[in-house]
Amino acid sequence: MRVLCVEPYYGGSHRQVLDGLLQRLDVQADVLTLPARKWKWRMRGAAITMSAQVRAMHEEWDADRGRRWDLVFASTFVNLAELYGLAGGALAGVPSIVYFHENQLVYPNRHEAEWDFQFPLTNITSALAADRCLFNTGWTMRTFLDELPAFIKRFPDHHPQGLAEAIAAKSQVLAPPFDPEPFDAAVGPDPDAPPRTARPRIVWPHRWEHDKDPDAFLAAVSALADEGLDFEVAIAGQSFRDVPESIGRASAHLGERLAHLGEPATREAYAALLAGSDIAVSTAVNEFFGLAMVEAAYAGCYPLVPDRLAYPELYPASMRYRSAEELHARLRDAVLHRPAPGQGRALASRFTFDALVPEYAGVFEQVAQCGRE
Do domains 2-177+353-372 and 181-349 have the same CATH topology? Predict the structure, then answer.
């Protein structure tokens, strides 16, 4: 099978998932990517740049050999309808899959303006243009389909009907897989006895963005420090060129308890950091899957997530909290009564590449077959 992969935001989980799939699927792939920065510009303009690349690649192809590609696999950071329109004959008749790592219809905008509407519209037109829509969680799919009619009503006139139903008919949930190998190496031969620091370690493995609500996490661990509890904190989501003001304030409370700050230099170092931690925390107000939390659970951390967003379908009630007060109480208990390692490992094992690649292979073949008929 010959696949054209289109990823305008080639970084983070987008990159990990795409690279891992292509290493394991039995396909010949042409991969078009753009660096993972300026996501709003990627969603607006990637189709212009990437369609030109598609046309150039197609011109090198011998027409007597038929279509160059059997399938297009794209993320929602490209407007699929624009890509096909601008690519012209290069993609004529080639079926497509669009993967929803996120859903712009429920993305939390701090400052809504009319131009923000472009991003959900890009999601909608891509979904309509695709032959199959894959969503990373049921929550991502449900919120997209549920919010779509209300969004369409915001049009000043000409409200198309039946869009949600048409998209639902070609949609399914397929989780993003992760590579367990670096975490297996870091944990060692006994998953129930990973390496541990002398005192309990709480890790926050997220990028430092407003939708992950880092201030809520810092407030919780700072409150524990004010009680004089003995523990340490690792903030491992990203590197900081300029230390945020909130980190400076938290450092005063945490003192030497702040054992790590910034993205580890290598994947192996990141895995070791997680394997040496006891509890991983999310305070996200926007999360469509949360690959970092799944990896932390696999590495041996006890995951503690808010009772909202995609989390209820991924984590049992015992691993979810409902308020800031409950988060503080659960963390306090974890510091005083260190949780046994590995409680979330079985939960996370469902999302390894070994577990999910056969499902991806099946979907790729099904959709590609549509183009052969």
Answer: yes
Tokens of residue 229, six digits: 């509890």
CA–CA distance, 355 with 351 (Å, rounded to integer): 6
Picking from 189, 112, 110, 117, the residue whose alpha carbon sits closest to that of residue 147 is 117
> Which tokens sit at 122?
């890009």
In sequence order, which residues have a C-beta less than 8 Å from that of residue 165 and are 6 or more positions away? none
Q: Across-strand partners of 6?
A: 32, 74
Outline where DSSP puts E strands in the chain: 2-10, 28-35, 71-75, 96-100, 132-135, 171-173, 201-204, 232-235, 258-261, 279-281, 302-306, 320-321
**Closest by CA position to 183, among listed 262, 118, 280:** 280
| Count of helix runs (H) and strand runs (E) in the chain | 15, 12
The tokens for 367 are 């959709």
Q: Which two tokens stand for residue 249?
A: 């304030």
User: What is the residue type of 372?
Assistant: R
Place of tokens 């959900």: 120
* pLDDT, tens digit (0-9, with 9 covering 90-100), for 297-327: 999 999 999 999 999 999 999 999 999 999 9
Topology (CATH level 3) of domain 181-349: Rossmann fold (3.40.50)
Class of domain 2-177+353-372 as given by CATH: alpha beta
Q: Tens digit of pLDDT for each residue in 65-106?
A: 778 999 999 999 999 999 999 999 999 999 999 999 999 999
**Residue holding tokens 């984590």?**
315
Q: How far apart are CA 108 and CA 102, in angstroms?
A: 12
Structure pTM? 0.93
Torsional sign, CA 85, 89, 92, 94 = negative
**Chain-centroid distance, C-alpha 303:** 17
Alpha carbon of residue 85 to chain centroid: 28
**Neighbour tally for 255: CB within 10 Å:** 8
172 within 8 A of 134, measured Cβ to Cβ:
yes
How many CB atoms within 10 Å of residue 146? 12
- Residue 178 is classified by DSSP as B
Question: DSSP letter at 169?
Answer: T
Please say whether the beta carbons of 99 and 73 come within 8 A: yes
**Both tokens assigned to 69:** 């590609």
The full set of domain ranges for the chain reads 2-177+353-372, 181-349
